[in-house]
Amino acid sequence: MPLLPSVSEDVTALPAGGRNPIGVALGLLGDEWTLLILRHALQGTRLYGDWMRRLPISHAVLTGRLARLTEFGLLERVVYQERPERFEYRLTGRGRGVWPILLGVWAWELSFVEQHAEELPRMRHRECGEFFEPVLVCGTCSEPVRPRDLTGGFGPSGTWERSMPSATTRRRAASAPGHREGFFPQTTALVGNRWSCALLGAAFQGARRFRDFEERLSAPPVVIADRLRTFVDLGVLTDDYRLTAKGLAFFPVAVHTMEWAQRWFRSPEGPALVYGHAGHAFRPRSACSRCASPLRGGTIDRVV
Ligand SMILES: [Zn+2]
Ligand SMILES: [Zn+2]
User: Nearest ligand, CA of residue 151?
Assistant: First the structure.
């Protein structure tokens, strides 16, 4: 269990020298069950029994994930009935704040992954009434952003070591819904494992050769080779380890995750990642592909 000294609605102060916000966020969100539970929470699920009905999940897994989401301040456990005493789990501000990440996962899976356990819904933007995809834009200048448009990288608390989810927070293998049958099967392959997360981060930060990945991750060559092979098989990297269109399209999920991580968790040394765009600070935002106006959480309708 990671040590979280002060959870508040505002920000969680992380211990000096320890895992930075990125490592903490990846350890928490790089888990298929957690993403599914949050997805339903964003659609209004609050009761234990409703998650049980809506997901093929065991009591042990659901109990564990809800406890973890409460511990990290994404859910709040509230008594809603006295006799008998019953609890519901309400999303906090930081819990609701994951919507751009989940929207990015949805858009990427919809565009690039054919097989899903259930058909993914389409999304309509209420303000323009059109089916849309989220477009990554810069919050300062509102222009669409591609990975190569950004400058910067690790800040004072940003090292590979501190940005990795800890091995103990990795708990998907035994209980995930299953690779093929999963709801977000390929997202889980990219972020549900500490080395995969790091490898993807390295690719977005410009690693191109086997040696680049090896140096940045300090992982055994056999692990690097295995993960690179998986990424090539998924079509995220080419045979010579360049990001494909599919790989580049995952970038919005990565930057929204980083943004959320650094909004809600803080290392005393300073930020883990600092990005700039066209001479100003970069804050990721999502915009509608049809009308170009900024997306807000409450303005998206699901159309199944
Ligand atoms: Zn900009
Ligand atoms: Zn729109």
Answer: 1
- Span from the CA of 133 to the centroid of ligand 2 (angstroms): 9
- In which residue are the tokens 């070591």 written? 161
pLDDT digits (tens, 9 = 90+) for 234-258: 999 999 999 999 999 999 999 999 9
Reported as a single tens digit per residue, the pLDDT across 256-271 is 999 999 999 999 999 9
pTM for this structure? 0.90
204 phi and psi, to 5 degrees?
-70, -25
Nearest ligand to residue 138 Cα = 1
Evaluate whether the domain defined by 12-303 bears CATH number 1.10.10.10: yes
| Protein residues near ligand 1, an ion, with CB under 5 A | 138, 140-141, 277-278
> 184: CA distance to ligand 1 center in Å?
30
Q: Could you tell me which residues come within 8 angstroms of residue 91 by beta carbon, excluding any fewer than 6 positions away?
A: 41, 42, 74, 75, 76
Of the listed ligands, the closest to the CA of 282 is: 1
pLDDT one-digit tens code per residue, 281-302: 999 999 999 999 999 877 788 7
125-174 tens-digit pLDDT = 999 999 999 999 999 999 999 988 999 889 999 998 899 887 654 444 44
